[in-house]
Write a structure and sequence with these properties.
Two copies of one chain form a homodimer. By secondary structure, the first copy, chain A, is mainly alpha-helical. Helices cover about 60% and strands about 10% of the residues of chain A. Chain A has a three-stranded antiparallel sheet with strand order 1-3-2. The first copy, chain A, is elongated. The N and C termini of chain A lie far apart (about 50 Å). Chain A binds a DNA duplex (30 and 30 nucleotides) through helix 4.
Amino acid sequence: MVKYSDSELNKVFHALSDSTRRGILARLAQGDAVVTELAEPFDMSLPAISKHLTVLEKAGLLRRHKDGRIRRCQLIAEPLQPAADWIKFYRQFWETKLDSLAAYLEKKQQNEDVLKK
Amino acid sequence: MVKYSDSELNKVFHALSDSTRRGILARLAQGDAVVTELAEPFDMSLPAISKHLTVLEKAGLLRRHKDGRIRRCQLIAEPLQPAADWIKFYRQFWETKLDSLAAYLEKKQQNEDVLKK
DNA sequence: GCTATATTTAACCATATGGTTAAATATATG
DNA sequence: CATATATTTAACCATATGGTTAAATATAGC
């Protein structure tokens, strides 16, 4: 497994923290697209979109290929993997509902209730 | 499954985009802790930590329980679930290596190579 | 009640973020 | 070559972020 630094994780999570950027990635999941296509669904200027693309690019989630006067954009999903791995660790907490001391005490209470019956 | 809004996803991903905050969550995964304990590993003032706790709290990832003059902090992992779900969709891309047109062409080339043999 | 401890709030600061419009760049096309 | 198209860069702006120090608040303990 590829080792990702803290700062790379920062960049990926930051890239994902904006609805527009997540929308762009969702669009790219259906296939490569040029900048104007990506911009179309958003009520926003082209320069604003271009900046979002730069954020995604710096996080390693997107590549821009120059092709004549257009620029074709490509999704690079690999950097999402360490982000998924990071979150995965916490899955045990929300799945087992053993989130917290409070949950622990709740469970303990349940056990006591069972014993009382 | 709980439905999470775009803005909640924004907040969760933003909360995760900082090493200090991820460190705090990692610490809390080992059990509840008071603010001073959480602050200890970081070369940072208490007010700075308090702000990070507020960011985590607003993302729904942490709760502060008042207990006398101390405040016990608790990890709430549930809001990580929609974030994990969001990323999960992209797993197919990095796992199948069918990331992109480039990968597609690469695969096509491989097929052609096979045919040549 | 006074003092020490735990934590937050307020005020401030530098830099980052997310948007804008106008200008620059590069390429395609009549 | 002149013009239209695609995109980025530059300059600007308001607000957010992540940190600081000093003051405020709340509770514990002598």
